[in-house]
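Continuing from yesterday's entry. The apo prediction looked reasonable, so today I'm repeating it with zinc ion included to see how the binding region is handled. Same sequence as before; SMILES copied from the compound registry.
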Amino acid sequence: MDADETAEKYNTAQEEKSTDKKFVPVCNICGEKHWPHHFLVPCVNKKRKEAKAKAEAKAKTRAKKMAKTEAKAKARAEAKAKARVEAKARKREKAEARAAAEKRSYVKAIAEADQKLQAEIEARSKAENEARTERQARLRAEKKATAYAQARDEAEVKAQSEAVARATAEDRAALEAE
Ligand SMILES: [Zn+2]
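Holo prediction written out below.
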């Protein structure tokens, strides 16, 4: 009996058996109720079960590994995000400090400019006062000089007229003495 003939006989037997819906034999390999799958491979349940268990274990391991990797990635991403937020906050603080310093120096520069302007106004006012005082002093001196010159002229005129009068008196006296 060759393999083909055996297979044919087996299949025929299977077909005959499958018509009997009530009877299902208990498999002596896996212990479940089923017909032999093939005359060369009477039961695939055990192998399938083992393979399934193996695959499940493998999947479980893979899932665990994946979860671990994901957790790691998540932690890394969170740390990165935190660092980014902190860096941003630091940057903002720096910018604020810089802006405050700029504002301070701006206010200081304005105050200094105000002070300088005030000092210039005061200096100009002082110089104007001094110039006015000088002008007044000069005017007074000029008036005094004019008055002095006038007095001298008057004195000269008076002295001259006195001399003339004296000479006239002397002339008259001389004439009278003759
Ligand atoms: Zn079986």
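Comparison notes:
- The radius of gyration is 68 Å.
- Helices lie at 3-19, 45-177.
Will overlay with the apo model tomorrow.
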